[in-house]
Structure formats: structure tokens, C-alpha cells
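With this grant's support, we have settled on a layout for protein records. A representative record follows, to show the layout.
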Amino acid sequence: MDAELAARVARLGDGLHRLTLAAGGRAIVKRRRGAPAGFFAAEAHGLGLLRATRTLRVPRVHGVESDAIVLEDLGAGRADHAAWERAGRALARLHSHTAPAFGLDRDGWCGSSPQANTRADDGHRFFAECRLLPQARRAYDAGRLGKADMAAVERLALALPSRIPVQPASLVHGDLWTANLHACEDGHLALIDAAAVHYGWAEADLAMLTLFGEPPAVLFAAYEDEAGIDSSWRTRAPLYNLYHLLNHLNLFGSAYLGGVLTVLRRA
């Protein structure tokens, strides 16, 4: 980040801000004083990985500091049927980018929770050891999850190979709830908030799109057509989303306990 822009950002408070750049155009600044080390660097890195695929639109990064990131201002608009269809096909092409191992060369963040990306050849082990079990142990240690429920998560982690089909390690957004599929001013859809990017299960990205409200059905239909899959991933969505429900339980409290318990009782 150039010195002039860094000085302007330093004067801003926490939260989201819009700036007019000296060279013209607008930028969005996300600032968080006292952000954990590497918090915004992880987002910048994730955005770079997504942008390199040339699939869905991704905001350019103008600069990053320890407590802030400056991004291209995409504006806000409304996506039409064709835009959602394009996004579904583009997301399938994004997921076609694969790696030999799950994880990433660095850890990341899912919301405000640290997210381990220790590389693993086995996707079931990666999801158990780097996703489900750390969140469950955090909830148990904080008294948010009971002993029997912790044991249920541990049993489910062991049973993952019989519940989740073998899949390649695909480049995924990692925190793909509907608000992170942003409708730009021109109506195109873009991926934002990318600190959770890693190589994981493509179905997990699809699953999270169903967790807090769903985008239009045309997105999923286009995705399935482009990827050459059926909709059986929906039967597994609760297992993938258990990670995010546990994360929300840890971040926001008992309002999410019911969702966690529902998954465990039906698993």
C-alpha cells in the first residue's frame, strides 16, 4: 500500500469505509484495530487465489496492512436470472481447479475464527482434524457443548469415510454463505471475504450456500450441469454445514446450539 493511502486508512475507525482514490475510482476499506496477525493477509491471499482462476469476479486488492485491507469497490446491484446462471457455471469451473492435497500453504480465518489448513492427502481426515474436531473441542471447553454431544461429533468424524464420497481437493471459498456471493453494481456476481479459501471439498461450498437462505435455484442447476453431477450433494449438506454451525456456536453463542444438535441427532 502506498504511503498516502496507508496514511488515509490509518485515520479511519473500525468497520467498512468507502474512499476515493487519488488515481480515480473508489475503494472499500475494511479496518479492524488489533486484528490478529495475518488476518487481512489471509484475505488478500485468498482473493488472489480465486482471482487467478478467471472464473467468478473477485475484487482487486489495492493494499493490505496488519489492521486493514483496501479493495476494489464493486458497488451494489441486483443479479438477474442470467447472472445467477453464469455464476453457477463459473463456480463449477472454480471448483475444477484442484491440488494434490487438502489444505493450503498457510492457515486462514472463517469469520473471526482461526482455521487450520494443515495439508493432508485424505479429505476425510482433513475435514475431521482441521474442521469438525477443533470447533467441537472449542465449544466443549467453553461449556457450549455437552460431553455426550462432543462424543457424537467424535463418532461422526470417524464415520466420515462411510458418509462422504471420495472427492478431489478443489479450490473452495470456504465461507460461501449467500452474502459472500455479492451482486455488483453491474449485476454480475462476485466472491468476497476470502480468508477461508483452501483446497477442500467442492460440495462443502455448495452446502453452505443452503445454510442461511439459498440463492435462486438456477445457480445450482447451472452448477450441476457444468460439473456433470446430480443433486445428491444436498443429502450430505448438513454434515458439511455442521462445521459452520459449530463455528457460529463458538462465535455467537447458544442460538446456534439447536442447529448443531439437530445435525448430530440425524447423522
User: Anything to note?
Assistant: The mean pLDDT is 96.
